[in-house]
Design goal:
Helices cover 0% and strands 51% of the residues. The protein has no helices and 13 strands. The chain has strands at 20-24, 32-38, 48-52, 59-64, 69-71, 75-81, 87-95, 101-107, 113-115, 120-123, 127-135, 141-151, 158-167.
């Protein structure tokens, strides 16, 4: 900006005693994105250049960056597996949003199913995390469990994945 400084946060206004050409540049923090200007003859997402010859208000819009999760499978069937032998499958969890995904896993009581090696995972924007789920039956018969995935997607904060398999 030319002229005296405006640095929003603690100072978001400025008084000029004569006609002044002012250049405003918006800078979003790491958790938000700049959505555009309004007022004072400014629009769009580029630099705002305004001539201040009377009282004007220019507003910079920002939006919080949030993850947007895509999980194609809501159930995983492992089929049959010998008692004590492991069968592994991958569950793709994609972050299509604009913010980092933070997720935790819970459930899976017992010893027949396990998920990943970590209880918490972060997935960057536009990336996919392949969660390895393991079925290792401890005894014969039908087995079932629910894996609950909690995350910071505001639209869907949690999802349950049904797991099934048969020990033989």
């Amino acid at each position: 900006m030319t002229g005296s400084g405006i640095n929003c946060g603690s100072d978001c206004s400025e008084t000029y005693t004569k006609v002044q050409n002012v250049k405003l540049t918006a800078k979003a923090d790491a958790n938000s994105s700049f959505t555009g200007w309004s007022g004072g003859g400014c629009s769009g997402t580029g630099t705002c250049e305004a001539t201040v010859d009377s009282s004007i208000t220019v507003t910079a819009g920002f939006a919080l960056r949030t993850p947007d999760i895509v999980v194609v499978q809501t159930s995983v069937d492992f089929g049959s597996a010998r008692v004590g032998k492991s069968v592994k499958k991958k569950l793709a969890i994609t972050n299509n949003g604009a913010g980092e995904l933070s997720m935790t896993f819970e459930g899976l009581g017992g010893t027949d199913f396990s998920a990943g090696k970590r209880s918490a995972v972060k997935v960057k924007t536009k990336k996919t995390y392949n969660l390895t789920i393991t079925f290792k039956p401890a005894s014969t018969g039908s087995k079932a469990a629910t894996l609950r995935v909690n995350w910071n997607d505001p639209d869907t904060p949690t999802i349950d994945i049904a797991l099934s398999g048969t020990g033989q």
